[in-house]
Amino acid sequence: MPIRFPENPEKLTDFEKLHIPAVWLLGPQIKVTVGEHPHLMMPNHFIEWIELYDGEERLARVELRPQQKAEFIVDIGGRVGYFKARALCSQHGLWQSGWR
Q1: What is the CATH number of the domain that holds 30?
Q2: Residue 51: which domain range?
Q3: Least buried of 3, 53, 59, 86, by fewest C-beta within 10 Å?
């Protein structure tokens, strides 16, 4: 499955703003959210899962269901790295934070 990235990370479209995951460092924890405005979480259109990576190493994965928030928090224990997130939208495919 191809990974989708924003065409211009400096100027996201409204569609991209709903799908691009964001990674927030909160001291020893990382919060991952999907969408600048929360993504829909309806039975036929929702974020199926979110993954957090340090480079190519997957650190965490959360499976989601409709009606849940498309976000999670994980303890990284002070780890320093290049964190990125991926999220799978049931209708619009796989999206990744950061640059290509």
Answers
A1: 2.60.40.730
A2: 3-96
A3: 3
